[in-house]
Write a structure and sequence with these properties.
7-stranded parallel β-sheet; 254 residues; globular
């Protein structure tokens, strides 16, 4: 009689999500954890990140180093953490800044008035850091035929007064995403405009305005999960036009 064959079940896939202490990053991290992903999450807000990590640790394996994605050493720690879990299958570049200093309560400045130091930080956070982190994660992503999900904005393609620095940085991220998609045959690369959401960042951009009628970040997550779990090619997408299940059909509609 032959002895039974024992096979080791495959390890759960690994996702690295930046800007995960609140907003869309937190909502997506929660959904990925519920779907069985192992997570590396990060944010500058150590207290908020620790709270999210404690919540998700009850569901999946989580590593949560706090820090800025603009810091070389921190990015290296993130790549090492993903490798320690078995290697990244998904990188979500979600961390962002409106205007470098992000002075809450102040209107977004016109391009003529943006301090160059703030503009530089905006590009560092929104464009250069995602490129740098992607470079570090590419060996892992290639090995797993993984994907990069870059969170973009309609400000990358529409001209909104006051949004010039942010929009230009997101446009740079869009272009980097498109070029990377052409260069990396084994890795899918998506830039996704999630649409306007009820987040602290959007409230900071609209001081004094009532944004309570805007959708919560959680409403965007099903489209992102379908993108990650489906077979859609690299490209730039609007979340509102993506199907919300991996079969490529919008649930409840033809």
């Amino acid at each position: 009689m032959n002895a039974p064959q024992h096979t080791t079940p495959p390890a759960a896939p690994v996702a690295l999500v930046t800007g995960a202490s609140r907003g869309l990053g937190r909502a997506l991290a929660r959904a990925l954890a519920a779907d069985g992903w192992q997570l590396v999450i990060t944010a500058r807000d150590a207290t908020g990140l620790a709270a999210v990590a404690a919540e998700l640790a009850a569901v999946t394996r989580v590593v949560a180093p706090a820090g800025s994605v603009t810091d070389d050493d921190h990015r290296a720690r993130l790549a090492e953490a993903a490798a320690g879990l078995g290697g990244a299958h998904l990188l979500v570049n979600n961390a962002g800044t409106l205007n470098g200093s992000d002075a809450a309560g102040d209107p977004l400045p016109r391009l003529a008035d943006v301090p160059l130091a703030d503009l530089l930080e905006t590009f560092e956070v929104n464009a250069l850091a995602p490129i740098a982190l992607t470079q570090l994660l590419l060996p892992q992503l290639r090995e797993h035929a993984g994907a990069v999900l870059n969170i973009s904005s309609d400000a990358a393609v529409e001209a909104y007064p006051g949004w010039g620095g942010y929009g230009a940085s997101k446009a740079a991220l869009d272009q980097a995403s498109a070029v990377l998609a052409r260069e990396e045959e084994a890795v899918r690369v998506w830039a996704v405009d999630p649409g306007t959401m009820r987040t602290r960042m959007y409230q900071d951009a609209c001081p004094g305005e009532d944004i309570s009628d805007e959708p919560l970040p959680e409403t965007v997550v099903p489209a992102l999960l379908a993108l990650v779990g489906g077979s859609r090619a690299s490209g730039r997408y609007r979340a509102s036009r993506l199907p919300t299940d991996a079969r490529g059909e919008r649930q409840g509609r033809r």
